[in-house]
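Request:
Um, any thoughts?
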Amino acid sequence: MKKIILAFLTGLVFHSVASAQEGKGVFAASPTPAYVAAENNLSKFFLYADGGFHADWYVGYNNCWTIQLPPINTSGYKKAYLGAKLGRAKIKSWPNSWDSTPIPGKIHMAINNTYSFNSEHSYVLADAKDLPLEPLPGDYLEGVDSAQWFWTPVPISKVSKTDNNYIALWSSGKDFVTSSSAPIVAAAMSDDGMENVWLTRSIKGAPPSGETALETPVSGLKPAIAIKLVPQNDFKVVIKGFYAQVSDEQIDTFFTAVGEDVRAAWLEISYDKFDWQRVGRYFFRAPYFRSFSRGELSTSMYYIRAAAVDSLENIGYSNAIKIPAMKKGE
């Protein structure tokens, strides 16, 4: 039996290699995303956003980071994403009182072949409430984690093959005006001598336009801003073992996610199985456990399911579980 299985697997490998060589899809055997950033090694983006000295590298209502990337050959790729590595979101009231709600505000990115941006070039990247939170110096806090990459899809036609690609990162959150209230973008040290990073402090919740985008050149450091290109692929993300155990007091959930480089997972609820809304924070690593107090999500009947996404931006979903309405008096 072992010989039969080995022969079968060998045949699969040979078939995949042969298909690629015959031109049936160069990405069929092992599709991988491509990343383009001001620093080629994305593992070097560990400064500032994980803790310690932040150097005022915040993403703000009055603070926009702009980078210049060269023309990018997108041939052979199907989708494009803008991304940034973000962390250290702040809670509302620290240190004056105790309110662990994250300070709200949306993070935006824009791409254009010149250093001028408007609404046609802009995309919402993330909400600050979904970012890893900054740890407290003398207390515990749920949601603290290292900085994470967040991605938003853009038309691949927006990535220029012939001209430079300028990318901006800022926030429309009016409270994000200092590093003590705003999330922090990660950075990498670089001595390449290239002038391709700028900081603009004269914005007001909108991206800079024209020369204002190049207000202050930044040397020796690169912000964690990147383009991700994804090839056509047939990879799947599979959710297994999802359960939702309901008691009078709470709902306990658990699941596993199987896929190629699963980068995030989450839970969703719906009242009709058509319109789904994410609830709770993202999971950035297994195991995937989460509990809600009874009625925290809804007192009416609803459905709940689990989801996860891989590095190729493929999303998988579990079957939906029906949560009954709360009885009166619970």
The chain has a mean pLDDT of 90. The first helix runs from residue 2 to 21. The chain has two domains: 34-230, 238-323. The helical segments are 2-21.
